[in-house]
Specification:
single chain, 24% strand, four-stranded mixed beta sheet, 9 strands
């Protein structure tokens, strides 16, 4: 049986564009030294997430072929499915296929049963993702590299290992970006004490 974390939706209006034991709210890293150090996943987990995303491309094609537009984003071995498929059976088939990939802890299935989004919509989503990331950096009180951002049809998905405080702050920032219609938090929540332990270890890395 697949493990399904509960989805926490924060509806947002606006018009225009490791450890496996922590609880989940819902819900590829560039493997350079600086990214490895600033990421709250271990370097091994970052590589696992990359592998999961790559393998997912093949598994999704095998499951539904060209019947839809599916994106798989993995963070700390939690696979987020976004995009569109033409039938509920395809939605289930994609989830089952990704869940069988080695290393996947759980699957968050946010696939919509509808026609595929247009290239213009996907381009708009990419711009939204960039704006949300830039807003995190501008805010300065958010550890931007600890949060992975994915956007689908104006809905922004946030993944990462964050505290409750950081989760709320990141959601508020994303909510303020023009064009964001909704925010879905796919966060793994850690305590302030856990965060304090992570940061010194990262600071000691070369």
């Amino acid at each position: 049986m697949l493990r399904r974390p509960a989805v926490l939706l924060a509806g947002l209006a606006a018009a225009a564009l490791m450890s496996a034991c922590a609880p989940l709210l819902v819900g590829g890293a560039v493997v350079g030294t600086s990214m490895m150090v600033s990421d709250r996943r271990t370097s091994g987990t970052q590589l696992e997430d990359q592998a999961i995303e790559l393998k997912s491309n093949t598994r999704v094609r095998e499951a539904v072929g060209e019947r839809g537009h599916v994106n798989v984003t993995s963070y700390n071995r939690v696979a987020l499915l976004t995009g569109e498929v033409v039938a509920e059976t395809d939605k289930v088939a994609v989830e089952q296929a990704v869940a069988k990939i080695e290393g996947v802890r759980s699957v968050v299935n946010e696939l919509a049963v509808m026609g595929s989004s247009s290239l213009a919509n996907r381009s708009n989503d990419a711009i939204l993702t960039s704006k949300v990331k830039a807003s995190f950096i501008d805010a300065k009180d958010v550890f931007a590299t600890a949060i992975k951002v994915t956007t689908e049809r104006g809905t922004v998905y946030l993944m990462g290992r964050v505290t409750e405080r950081e989760s709320t702050r990141a959601s508020d920032i994303a909510r303020g970006v023009p064009g964001v219609l909704k925010v879905v938090r796919v966060f793994e929540v850690i305590s302030e004490a856990e965060l304090a332990e992570i940061q010194p270890k990262q600071a000691q890395k070369p």
